Every structure is written in structure tokens, then in C-alpha cells.
Amino acid sequence: xxxxxxxxxxxxxxxxxxxxxxxxxxxxxxxxxxxxxxxxxxxxxxxxxxxxxxxxxxxxxxxxxxxxxxxxxxxxxxxxxxxxxxxxxx
Length: 90
Fold this sequence. Notes:
Elements: H1 3-20, H2 29-52, H3 64-85
């Protein structure tokens, strides 16, 4: 996937994940984009693990199913970041 598609997928998935996840998440557009890209990596890796049984670092494509997987991965990333930093969402 080329760089422009990663940026678009990251912005869309990160924005949707921040809107869906309860509580307040800080950060601007760059943070949202990075969150979405990390979510695409997490989601793609989980789907590959479930499909093939092997752990490979993969990402999702810029498509509707790929966007859904990226949003789920971004929600997981928000949750994990909250656990690591110890911040609570209120």
C-alpha cells in the first residue's frame, strides 16, 4: 500500500476510533493519523493470525473491510495506550 493510502486510511480509522471509544483522547491530526496506521497494523496482524495461524506484521488495504479492521485495531491501540500510561478515560 502506498504512503498516501496509508495516510488516508490512518486519518479515517483514527478519527472513527476516537469518536467511538468512550472518554476523551487528546492529540491532533498527526496523533489521529498515527493511531489509525497503528490500528491498521494491529488489525491486519490479528486477521492474518486468525486466517493463517502465523504471526506476520501486515496491514489492511484501503477498502471498507480494511477500514473496519483498522478501526477495531485503533480501538485496541487506544485501550492498550490507556493501560500503558495509566490514564483513565472520563
